[in-house]
């Protein structure tokens, strides 16, 4: 669910809009689902390899949105469930009854983890 999206055959020099909110139905690319939130897509110019700038046909694009090297996956998703649940629990906006789409402070999305039964 949160691992990278492996993309092939992007053209060097093309500009892509990487989704930063996680709401897009066309992951990893933006479909403007962020409208009405504070999130904005990351404009990314397709480049060659980091090593030498040479041609590249395979890109590992982040899907969890917690990467430290956007839009590339850096394996931050490995510890994401624990980080996410901690952030939601400690969020100043909690409890999130009024959140319709996404909490802009902690990333809570209604229905992402339906663990309300566990808390009772």
Write a compact overview of the structure shown.
This protein has helices at residues 80-90, 116-119; strands at 5-8, 15-18, 42-45, 58-61.
Question: What would you say this structure looks like, in words?
Answer:
- The structure is a single chain.
- With 120 residues, this protein is α+β, with helices and mostly antiparallel strands.
- The chain folds into two domains: 1-77, no CATH class; 78-113, no CATH class.
- The protein has two helices and four strands; from the N terminus they run E-E-E-E-H-H.
- It has helices at residues 80-90, 116-119, and strands at residues 5-8, 15-18, 42-45, 58-61.
- The strands form two sheets. A two-stranded antiparallel ribbon has the order 1-4.
- The chain is elongated, with a radius of gyration of 16 Å.
- The two termini are 26 Å apart.
Let me know the number of strands. 4
Shape designation: elongated
Helix content: 10-25%
Spatial order of strands in the largest sheet: 1-4
Mean pLDDT: 88
Main attributes of the structure:
12% helix; 120 residues; two-stranded antiparallel ribbon; alpha+beta; metal ion binding; CISD; MitoNEET_CISD; 2 helices; Iron-binding zinc finger CDGSH type domain-containing protein; two-stranded antiparallel sheet
Helices and strands, with pairings:
Blueprint: E1 5-8, E2 15-18, E3 42-45, E4 58-61, H1 80-90, H2 116-119
Antiparallel strand pairs: 1-4, 2-3
